[in-house]
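Entry for zinc ion complex. Fields follow.
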Amino acid sequence: MVITEWLISRSVFGSSMSKGMRSSKKPTIRQLGEQVKYMDEEINRLSQFLNDELKACKEVLHRFFLELDKSNIVVLAMLENDGKLERVECGSCELINNIPLLDGLEQDKTCGHCGEDMNPEQKSLEDFEEE
Ligand SMILES: [Zn+2]
């Protein structure tokens, strides 16, 4: 159920509020107190609802990433068996990046861990020594 449906079904924006507003008489302190109590209860219910939804989303994401991890391990093992995997240490953060060596797949020089260029110094240093 989406939040807007929930809100309408709980009448937070629905009939009960407008009924109160339609009355030409000023509400009594007791009526105001009841309205505040009602709103408070609705906020608590909404908060509980959002907590439950968030928990469910986290659970789904957790399972999704577990499955993704399993697939990644299989794909990397297959590439390594075929000699189509290069492990490159990032020059910036020193973590290892798995680079697939496949035709038609452009090699990304950006580190998957830190987002920096994996060998920023290498090229310019070699160029400098050759000259
Ligand atoms: Zn890095």
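NOTE: The CA atoms of residues 12 and 38 lie 9 Å apart.
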